[in-house]
Model the fold of this input.
Amino acid sequence: MSKEQLRLTASEKARIAFLVARMAKRGLADDRQFGGRVDQRDLQRKVERIEEQARKRAERTKNGK
Done:
């Protein structure tokens, strides 16, 4: 991410918060002391996809002005 803060809509913030909570829940469910056995890449990709949509929207609004 660049120096500029990414502007997210309320819906995007809520979706990311939900996904982060799911990641935390999976992390707690890991039975190893130091973690590492639970795969969270699917949730991380979903967060990245939401952030990419926000970047594209920011570019469209920047070019539209």
Remarks:
- The two ends are 22 Å apart (CA to CA).
